[in-house]
Design brief:
Elements: H1 3-23, H2 32-48, E1 72-74, E2 83-85, H3 88-101, E3 107-113, E4 116-123, E5 126-132, E6 138-140, H4 143-146, E7 164-172, H5 175-187, H6 196-204, H7 209-214, E8 218-225, H8 234-243, E9 253-255, H9 258-271, E10 279-286, H10 289-295, E11 305-309, E12 314-326, E13 332-343, E14 346-352, H11 356-362, E15 369-373, E16 381-385, E17 411-412, E18 419-420, H12 428-439, H13 451-459, H14 474-477, H15 484-497, H16 503-509, H17 517-527, H18 530-535, H19 538-541, H20 549-560, H21 562-573, E19 594-598, H22 606-615, E20 619-621, E21 630-633, H23 639-648, E22 651-653, H24 655-671
Parallel strand pairs: 2-11, 19-20, 19-21, 21-22
Antiparallel strand pairs: 1-6, 3-9, 3-10, 4-5, 4-7, 7-8, 10-11, 12-13, 12-15, 13-14, 15-16, 17-18
Helix pairs in contact: 1-2, 16-17
The structure holds 2-(butylsulfanyl)adenosine.
2-(butylsulfanyl)adenosine binds next to strand 3, strand 8 and strand 11.
């Protein structure tokens, strides 16, 4: 081996070692500075000598922007779920049953980590694949993303591992990473993750592994699967896996009686509040594999394990008052002001009350002592009232009937639990909310204009709606507090630049009720121009994917308003994009044909199939109708859909048949006229790897 090769090997060995010391053992031996220096040296060497590339090099931890396709792959051993209970009595019955069938069984009690399950495959001591649980039989291949998680060993240390094995565990987002992520998202005007579990799962499905690398995920392993594991018990194998470099929890115990199991649970129900990552229970597993085998499985879960789930933490405190917030769509949200109280690690002062019905249902009254819980949502919620402590003179809560901001009478829309202020065009928080939504990064991405500046511009009469933005001049902005000439000019430039954002983002930016980012994309793709969306009838609108009656009505309402139409006209005049960019097609072979994709596919993701259809000029529909030409049917598609397709005489294609159809299209293209565009600038996303 050359000197360079040797140096690369040595650096990788050292970096792997120190990585483990830091992220798995929590016992770093060198400074961050020295670690970074070695990492940089390795990066430079690898860049200069691509012949030494290795997917398991420690440099892959930083991730890359190459988008990863999440291929669906089959699990070698199915990933089962766990039976669970909230009741100690049921748990005791479970233990008694085990004792009957496997006398003297030992239990391993572990924490139930609240993240997202992962299965890692190692071949000859090297990570080869990481797959999500999926439906238990098949999951998504997220290897590129998992390689960036520092506590996952890319290359094992020590020895004695089987040539091929899987190890399963939980990808977690520690509270510190979660808080940092949400703070960043809030600043960028992006939607927040409701809890660390959603954030971990969402992050794992990120397209760019460079983004994953920055989010601070962690991975704890709790189960081995393979044909030649070194030991005959769960406990021994996990302890050994720790030696190989895996992060295996220290918070596990062997228990030999109901009392010991109960003590473990009682301890962690309290002690978990101090842990830096979320847990939602305790998992109790039979330790010896011989006993596990004797107990066996049900269709869904092992009979040798169960999860005891902790009840959500609650706190009792006084409801001081209720505020009513009016959002940009006019929706009114009641928010409770509480006597500050400590709950799951943070002080809670406010809680969501959702809507009038919820308040009436729980009969919540001012100055009641109320129970607060942190559920799946970001804001804690009130889950009940301590009636025993209700003051004698308390009266039922009276909900407001007029907008707290503009005094307009509130309305209820059919099927909507919330009250709305209908005064869209003159109610301050609605106007400001719409402007702030419009300039968000995911919408028109206008930088430099914060909420405060928007409010100032509104007060001074310069900004009454989003179209006014395009009439602003730098000399009107520069006198405002904290702005000055330079930032004023930057803002104007940023406004001008916003005329370049693609049409679907303009559609999202308008802030039509229920039209989120995804719906806006479907609408833009389906109709192509703003004019077409505006002209569309209800029947035509629901033809677009994801658009149902509710969204269609909201779109019709929006464009029925003369003020809104005037704003749209002015935006158009300002040069904002109102047409979707035409995609460069690979061929027109599917032009005029309408497809419905349904079920799960073994070789492609559904989006991948849809992109293929579009790139050959075909159209994707959400539901089977008489207009559908082909139904591409995967596994586990709904029988109703299949029946409907058969009844309507829609042709049904398997994944293989569809592949043949596309392959034929591709040949036609190569044999016939080659479109002018080079492969590199096709606007269709290139599909990674060989397609068929
Ligand atoms: S063992 C066959 N151990 O809980 C048993 N699961 O509700 C497989 N989980 O999908 C799971 N902590 O994502 C096991 N210490 C632990 C766990 C754990 C969390 C999750 C896991 C599983 C889910 C089942």
């Amino acid at each position: 081996m050359t000197e360079t090769g040797k140096r690369i090997e040595e650096l990788r060995r050292q970096l792997n070692y120190h990585n483990r010391k830091y992220y798995v053992d929590n016992a770093p031996e060198i400074s961050d500075f020295d670690f970074d220096r070695m990492m940089r040296e390795l990066q430079d060497l690898e860049q200069a000598h691509p012949e030494y590339a290795d997917p398991n090099s420690p440099t892959v931890r930083v991730g890359s922007d190459i988008t990863s396709e999440f291929r669906s792959v089959e699990h070698r051993f199915p990933m089962l779920s766990l039976g669970n209970t909230y009741s100690l009595e049921e748990l005791h019955e479970f233990l008694a049953r085990i004792e009957k069938e496997a006398e003297g069984a030992e239990y391993v009690c572990e924490l139930k980590f609240d993240g997202t399950a992962i299965s890692l495959t190692y071949e000859h001591g090297r990570l080869v694949r990481a797959v999500t649980r999926g439906d238990g039989t098949r999951g998504d291949d997220v290897t590129a993303n998992v390689r960036t998680i520092r506590s996952v060993p890319l290359v094992l240390s020590g020895g004695g591992w089987p040539d091929l094995f899987e190890i399963r565990g939980e990808i977690l987002m520690p509270y510190t990473s979660f808080d940092r992520l949400n703070a960043e998202r809030e600043e960028q005007g992006e939607s927040l993750f409701a809890n660390p579990r959603n954030a971990a799962a969402g992050t794992l499905k990120q397209q760019s592994s460079a983004v994953v690398a920055k989010r601070g995920l962690d991975c704890t392993l709790y189960q081995l699967a393979g044909d030649r594991l070194p030991h005959e018990s769960h406990w021994e194998n996990l302890q050994e896996a720790r030696e190989w470099g895996f992060k295996v929890s220290d918070h596990m115990r062997i228990c030999r009686s109901e009392e010991e199991v109960d003590a473990f649970i009682a301890h962690w129900d309290e002690a978990r509040k101090q842990l830096p990552f979320p847990t939602d229970g305790v998992v109790i597993k039979v330790n010896r594999y011989a006993d596990q085998r004797a107990l066996g499985f049900t269709a869904k879960a092992p009979k040798w394990a169960v999860a005891y789930k902790f009840k959500a933490e609650q706190a009792l405190t006084e409801l001081l008052s209720v505020d009513f917030q009016v959002g940009r769509t006019g929706a009114v949200t009641p928010v409770a002001n509480l006597e500050p109280v400590l709950l799951a690690g943070t002080t809670v002062k406010r809680a969501s009350l959702h809507n009038a019905e919820q308040i009436a249902l729980l009969d919540i009254r001012l100055h009641d002592r109320v129970y607060v819980e942190k559920g799946g949502e970001i804001i804690p919620k009130i889950t009940g009232v301590e009636l025993a402590e209700r003051p004698a003179d308390s009266e039922p809560f009276r909900y407001i009937d007029r907008c707290p901001e503009c005094g307009t009478e509130l309305v209820r829309y059919e099927g909507e639990a919330k009250h709305y202020c209908p005064n869209q065009n003159a109610c301050r928080p609605q106007i400001l909310g719409r402007i702030i939504h419009f300039i968000r990064r995911k919408a028109m991405d206008i930088e430099g204009l914060g909420e405060e500046t928007v409010e100032l511009l509104f007060e001074s009469g310069l900004l009454k709606n989003v179209a006014d933005l395009y009439d602003l001049r730098a000399d009107q902005l520069s006198p405002l507090p904290r702005l000055g000439e330079k930032s004023a000019e930057n803002i104007i430039r940023s406004i001008r630049r916003s005329t370049e954002v693609p049409f679907h983002r303009v559609l999202f930016a308008l802030g039509i009720r229920f039209v989120g980012e995804t719906t806006a994309k479907y609408l833009a793709g389906h109709f192509g121009t703003l004019e077409a969306v505006m002209q569309a009838t209800r029947e035509e609108l629901v033809e677009a994917e994801e658009v149902g009656d509710k969204i269609a009505d909201a779109i019709l309402d929006y464009f029925a308003d003369a003020g809104n139409r005037r704003i749209v006209e002015r935006l158009e005049a300002a040069g904002v994009r109102t047409e979707a960019e035409r995609k460069q097609l690979l061929s027109e072979s599917l032009a005029g044909l309408q497809f419905v994709i349904s079920g799960k596919f073994s070789r492609h993701g559904r989006d991948e199939l849809k992109a293929l259809i579009e790139s050959h000029g075909g159209k994707n529909l959400a539901a089977v109708s008489a207009q559908t030409d082909y139904l591409v049917a995967g596994e586990k598609m709904g029988p109703a859909k299949l029946k409907k397709a058969e009844k309507l005489g829609v042709k049904i294609l398997s994944e293989e048949e569809f592949e043949q159809m596309i392959a034929a299209a591709e040949t036609t293209r190569t044999a016939g006229e080659e479109p002018e565009a080079e492969a590199a600038d096709r606007s269709v996303e290139p599909v990674q790897g060989s397609l068929f």
